[in-house]
Design goal:
Elements (H helix, E strand, L loop, with lengths): L8 H10 L2 H10 L1 H8 L4 H13 L6 H8 L4 H11 L7 H4 L3 E6 L5 H5 L2 H4 L6 E5 L5 E2 L6 H8 L6 E7 L2 E8 L5 E5 L6 E4 L3 E5 L3 H6 L1 H6 L6
Antiparallel strand pairs: 1-2, 1-8, 2-3, 4-5, 5-6, 6-7, 7-8
């Protein structure tokens, strides 16, 4: 312990910032010295800010969760909150309304809907976006959105609501107008969200790369909805 107590601030920071979370947990459980050092507020930004950045790298964090993180006083608390939140499978209305989703039809929807969908018309290199408003309306941020224009011409409002069952199966689902309810799922690879049924999918993060990555998965994910 005498040698450990002589560790410089620089060495503590280097040690803590490069250990992974499991190693830090092991250190803090077996040594009161390391537990005290790693948890000192003095080292918070040096040790835990890099851990938070690594935890977020390549992951989707919604604006709603970002706001929750900003409300926490330390990087340690933010890191723990984010890692625990990644295990969550439910999507609250407040978080839903904070996200801009990529929207696309599945092939099963048919040629007419595919003709209105830039995802199919441009070979997956573009897509529509959708946002869910707190007043229950689904909107597009793009004034030139062909599907949005079609809905306006048809005098059709696109509305959403959370439901607690689908075809007799209890759970948390999202329904658009009177169309089949959609399953809400977490993507374990990106921590993003996939909301889908046999005809459509809403995906976050809304990037071409993400849509391309899950294209086959979405197109094969049909039978359970029928």
């Amino acid at each position: 312990m005498g040698t450990l107590s002589k560790l410089t601030d620089e060495l503590v920071v280097i040690t803590g910032s490069f250990l992974d979370m499991k190693d830090i947990l092991s250190f803090t459980l077996t040594s009161s010295y390391w537990r005290n050092m790693f948890l000192l507020p003095h080292y918070d930004s040096y040790i835990w800010a890099p851990h938070l950045a690594r935890a977020r790298k390549g992951k989707f964090v919604s604006p709603f969760i970002d706001a929750q993180l900003e409300g926490l006083s330390s990087y340690l608390d933010r890191t723990k909150y984010l890692i625990n939140d990644a295990k969550r499978g439910s999507l609250t209305p407040s978080e839903l309304c904070s996200i801009t989703f990529a929207f696309r039809f599945k092939a099963l929807a048919g040629e007419f809907w595919a003709s209105l969908d830039p995802y199919w018309q441009n070979h997956g290199l573009s897509y529509m976006c959708r946002s869910f408003r707190e007043d229950g309306i689904v909107v597009s941020p793009d004034a030139d959105d062909s599907l949005e224009q079609w809905a306006r011409q048809a005098n059709m409002a696109i509305t959403w609501r959370m439901t607690k069952s689908r075809q007799g199966k209890k759970g948390a689902y999202l329904q658009i107008n009177r169309w089949p309810s959609m399953v809400i799922e977490r993507d374990p690879e990106t921590w993003g969200w996939i909301i889908s049924n046999q005809w459509v999918a809403y995906v976050a993060p809304s990037t071409v790369e993400n849509l391309s990555r899950i294209h086959v998965r979405l197109e094969k994910d049909i039978e359970r909805f029928l």
